[in-house]
Design a protein that fits this description.
By secondary structure, the chain is an alpha/beta fold. Helix content is 48%, strand content 18%. It starts with 6 loop residues before the first strand and ends in a 5-residue tail after the last helix.
């Protein structure tokens, strides 16, 4: 007798086969009873045939429209499971990730979990890695203070998804989607025991690319009217001051292993916040970044 399908894991993927394979191997360590794993490849230039052979029990589908929003929407459309787990291909779920999610699924309509950061390079950490160790993926703050969750570790139900509609491409799609759900009255909570891990950005170009994309997406959500652009400019001008405010957080962090890592993290903090100020002022005056 076949087991009834209760859960689906939706994984958007683009051109990162080693990390996708690592993610899928970790998922195999979970209790997959009643679970369908759907990998949605976003038109990668490399073949997934080798990964398909390693994981024949998992479903691989293709979504030619570029963007994680399209990939996630396609994944939901490909399954009938009433419960939807979202994770990114470069994340590593804990061995009890699905079990933890099932245990708390009835507590809220949307549940975001903990995202730990790990390094893919040997110590000591460079500036980008040290910065990420302190500041990256604070899902508790995203959810409990800012009112949204990322989709790298997110659980919801199909009826919620159907009521809200799909992710929207071209903006910070997970932030916009979860905020849209909350605005419609659906509940969002943080669960610390619902855990995945994500690799740190390995260098300044990777960190800079991440924050350029994030800044572009945030500006689209901010609005482009005169008042909105003025608010954006004020936020941009405050960026260097925010680096000063956050320096004690770096200095007191137990995630950094040496004085050198602390100093490199602080240097990257100021460099990044000043860069974001420049980007935001360009956007506020009608320019591009």
């Amino acid at each position: 007798m076949s087991t009834a399908l209760t859960d689906a894991v939706i994984i958007p993927h683009y051109n990162d086969l080693p990390r996708l394979e690592r993610c899928l191997r970790a998922l195999r360590e979970n209790d997959l009873t009643g679970t369908e794993i759907v990998i949605v490849d976003n038109d990668s230039p490399v073949s997934l045939d080798g990964v398909r052979q390693i994981f024949p029990e998992m479903r691989f589908v293709a979504e030619p429209k570029k963007g994680a929003a399209h990939a996630r929407n396609r994944g939901v459309a490909e399954t009938t499971a009433p419960r939807l787990f979202f994770i990114d291909a470069d994340c590593v779920p804990a061995s009890d990730w699905l079990t933890a999610g099932r245990q708390v699924a009835d507590r809220a309509d949307l549940i975001g979990g903990r995202v730990d950061v790990f390094d893919e390079t040997p110590p000591p950490r460079n500036g980008a890695e040290a910065f990420e160790a302190v500041f990256a993926f604070n899902f508790r703050r995203y959810i409990e203070v800012q009112g949204f969750s990322g989709a790298g570790n997110l659980l919801t139900r199909r009826d919620v998804f159907d009521a809200i509609g799909g992710f929207i491409n071209g903006v910070s799609e997970d932030r916009e989607w979860t905020m849209r759900a909350v605005a419609r009255g659906y509940s969002l909570i943080y669960e610390d025991g619902f855990r995945v891990s994500h690799p740190s950005r390995q260098n300044w170009p990777a960190l800079k690319a991440k924050w350029r994309r994030t800044t572009q997406e945030a500006y689209q959500l901010n609005g482009t009217g005169v008042a909105a652009r003025l608010r954006w400019a004020v936020r941009g001008l405050a960026m260097p001051a925010s680096a000063v405010v956050h320096t004690p957080k770096v200095m007191s962090s137990d995630k950094l292993a040496s004085t050198g890592e602390v100093l490199r993290a602080i240097s990257t903090l100021f460099r990044l916040r000043c860069q974001r100020m420049v980007w935001m002022l360009r956007q506020a005056t009608g320019g591009t970044i």
